[in-house]
Amino acid sequence: MRFRAKIVDLACLNHFSRVINTIAKLAKTCTLRLTVGKLYFILSDKVANGGVTMWCELCQGNFFDEFQMEGVAAEHNEIYLELVPDNLSRALKTAQSAKAVKIKLTNKHCPCLRVAVELPSLSSSSRIVTHDIPVGIIPRKLWNDFREPSVPDFDVIEANLSGEMNLKIETDLVSVTTHFKDLGNPVWASEDGYQSSAQDRDLESMAEARIDIKKLQQLLAGQQVNPTKALCNIVSKRIVHFILLHEDVSLQYYIPALA
Amino acid sequence: IARISDEFWFDPVEKGLALRSVNSSRSAYACVFFSSMFFQHYCWAAVSQPCQKEKQFSLPCKLIIKSVLPVFRCVNVLERNVEKCSIYTNINDHHITFQLLCKHGVVKTYNLMFQDCDPLQAVFAKHLCPNILKVHSRLLAEIMIHFPTSQEEVTLSVTPMKVCFKSYTEEDTDFSKTMLTEIQLNPEEFDYFQVGVDSEVTFCLKELRGLLAFSEATSVPVSIHFDVSGKPIAFSIEDMVLEANFILATLSDVEKERASQQAPESSKTRTGKSDKTSVDRENSGAVASKKPQWNSNTAPAKPASPLAKREIKDIPRAVKREVTGTEETAVTEAEERAALGEAAGAQYQKFHSLFFGAVSCQKDAPSHSFHSLATASDTEEDFGNAQSSPVL
Known about the structure:
The complex is a heterodimer of chains A (259) and B (392).
Chain A: E1 2-7, H1 10-26, E2 30-34, E3 38-43, E4 53-59, E5 66-70, E6 79-83, H2 85-93, E7 100-107, E8 111-119, E9 127-134, E10 136-137, E11 165-170, E12 175-180, H3 213-221, E13 229-235, E14 239-245, E15 249-256
Antiparallel strand pairs in A: 1-5, 1-7, 2-3, 2-6, 3-4, 4-15, 6-10, 7-8, 8-9, 11-12, 13-14, 14-15
Helix pairs in contact in A: 1-2
Chain B: E1 7-13, E2 16-22, E3 28-35, E4 61-64, H1 65-68, H2 75-81, E5 82-90, E6 95-102, E7 107-113, E8 115-116, E9 131-135, H3 137-144, E10 153-158, E11 163-167, E12 180-185, E13 192-195, E14 199-204, H4 205-218, E15 222-226, E16 233-238, E17 242-248, E18 250-251, H5 253-261, H6 275-283, E19 294-295, H7 304-313, H8 315-323, H9 334-339, H10 346-356, H11 365-373, H12 383-386
Protein name (chain B): Cell cycle checkpoint control protein RAD9A
Pfam families (chain B): Rad9 (PF04139)
Main location (chain B): nucleus
């Protein structure tokens, strides 16, 4: 198992840092899946997370100048690591003016992601700051736990198919409703190319789901990358699915509905 | 100074005002000296105490930092509103008055009670350190920023070819849970670089951050004087009108080795920086825990008694030496006052432990002062204090 990557471009580095910062705000620990072409940050729905699921996909080519990976075996050319994204965020925080950032999987005292930041200095040789971030190697037999969550057969996009959405908060004393109009209702092509049965549904009827506002807040407050597109799907009373799309990053976040 | 302790010594002397502080485990000492020229008007008079035969040249008193900080809070506001600040002491009433004369005729007066106390002064010969680095405060701040604020201890490792600051780790560090950071620098980055002996010293970063913030404000270069592990490390800044010294104890390698040979201690607390953990360790009966002990011997090592005796004679001279602001900060010790016949309370023992070895222990208090004056015998049970023998 080997992994080495290098970022030289400052803009790419900043972008990558922002993505990591977003992930760090959403999950204390998460899984990093490395494949030849992509990086995935995954949080699978366990009781500890409050049932929340997160799936974030990045195209490595858009960030790294060099990216070499050798998985556990030839036919399973992937690496699954468990890490604390906040550590990675901290390591990159002070790399704002770096000449280069190298990330390597090492195993000195224990498996680590070694982030080496080369900083400009007044002298002829650069200043090198190394951060060893401990990681856990996830064995192959557990890889199935981390599959991309299948998008459930949702009813309609937040409220109804006529592009109206209501965000409602209710307490004992007060109830606040925000009405959104003229939202798009994109047609969702399901995996086997079959168009969803959206046309059969009543355009006006509302689908609703009640979710923990703290989780929604965590998702929205943590955003550091402005998405070009944001989608929200609801399975009535079951789950809310947010998709935030950017050119080279996609972030999916599932929040289960409260009983 | 607030990062070191809750209280500080307010010590006006003829040539200026010294503010000093020492932490509870006596492993960090700070002294900021403002020469009389720093002030617009400086007036100091020797006062002879009725109970003493000889004139006392200094009026040391202790103040609680928390009481004084609010006076000087909000530097921006101060700069805009305050025209003058007067500080004067009233010995009879036991209080110090800080008076801020502000715009529009507003006068804010703060009267703070002080505690009588014995002088606190560090004994550390900076000029005898083989390793000296001088660096701009900005660079030091840029280095320390890479360590998380929760990072307690940092190791500085030097050879003539390179300088490295890294997170401190010990044998039983759980590497799978801790993120380690290391910064490598070229000697060229330092304004002055002298490495007489390869060394690796570990000190407490938290306590240093106070000096870092202060030095950034004054933008004066920071000098670092140190020796091998176990000997203290001094961070100092100096300009025309002020001089600040932060002297920190460093972890001793010798004790680390010996400690690992001892029976493992049940308590897994960190090395005793605070009184609490040190007392816990001592109370559980073991001589030394598995954890290495903090040691702050001054350099160089010399037999205790002849030197201690010499110290006594040096009192008046030493005071003047410090006042003239030379690089040498070797000054008298509180123990001299003990020798002069003043009441030896537990207080004296505390002063000693910074310079005489391991973390102070209340249990050992009665015998402690004598121990440091005598040539220590390196017995097992005195392990903790044995390191105190090479005194000054």
